[in-house]
């Protein structure tokens, strides 16, 4: 696996190993050994997937301490623009975002550290998005910030969003509980 640093400390774009032959292809989505060598989190007790129509935007979501989590995300079908916003106070990239296209042809995924908000925009119909988390879902700890309050260059200003996501707090009004730790 190729693990590439993004501008957000602790956030990596990972290009997976792909084996192709006449039958199709096989993609290795996780290697505990590689993650251990890179000092990345390796235990993901909950795995989710969603199916989205074109122009659906989900996010920007995260969980607060004590149930904050690392995420490992990929697009298994279709194509998405995946967004990460650094919410860690004192981080050199606090408030900044990255936008990465994920799709099965690129065979890439994102490793997102705790303390970052995450969301994605579906570029195609029937997009299948995979989300592995280092902690289980906790409604009590579930939070989000409004999708258009962080300066993300989304492809539209009129995406399809859930009622919940329409009413999330703006980034400027959010009082982050996350602190940056240099040893990420």
From TrEMBL:
InterPro entries: RmlC-like, RmlC-like_jellyroll, RmlC_Cupin_sf. It catalyses: dTDP-4-dehydro-6-deoxy-alpha-D-glucose = dTDP-4-dehydro-beta-L-rhamnose. Transmembrane segments: none annotated. Gene3D superfamilies: Jelly Rolls. Signal peptide: none annotated. It is an enzyme of class 5 (isomerase). Its EC number is 5.1.3.13. PANTHER family: DTDP-6-DEOXY-D-GLUCOSE-3,5 EPIMERASE, THYMIDINE DIPHOSPHO-4-KETO-RHAMNOSE 3,5-EPIMERASE. Catalyzes the epimerization of the C3' and C5'positions of dTDP-6-deoxy-D-xylo-4-hexulose, forming dTDP-6-deoxy-L-lyxo-4-hexulose. This is dTDP-4-dehydrorhamnose 3,5-epimerase.
């Amino acid at each position: 696996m190729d693990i590439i640093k993004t501008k957000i400390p602790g956030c990596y774009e990972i290009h997976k190993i792909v084996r192709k032959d006449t039958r199709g292809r096989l993609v290795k989505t996780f290697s505990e050994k590689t993650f251990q060598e890179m000092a990345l989190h390796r235990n993901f007790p909950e795995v989710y997937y969603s199916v989205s129509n074109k122009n659906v935007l989900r996010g920007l979501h995260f969980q607060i301490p004590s149930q904050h989590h690392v995420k490992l995300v990929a697009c298994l079908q279709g194509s998405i623009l995946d967004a990460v916003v650094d919410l860690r106070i004192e981080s050199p990239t606090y408030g900044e975002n990255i936008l990465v296209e994920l799709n099965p042809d690129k065979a890439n995924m994102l490793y997102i550290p705790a303390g970052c908000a995450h969301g994605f925009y579906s570029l195609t119909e029937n997009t299948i998005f995979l989300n592995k988390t280092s902690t289980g879902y906790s409604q009590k700890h579930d939070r989000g910030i409004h999708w258009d309050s962080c300066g993300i260059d989304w492809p539209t200003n009129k995406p399809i969003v859930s009622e919940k996501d329409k009413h999330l707090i703006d980034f400027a009004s959010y009082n982050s509980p996350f602190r940056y730790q240099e040893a990420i």
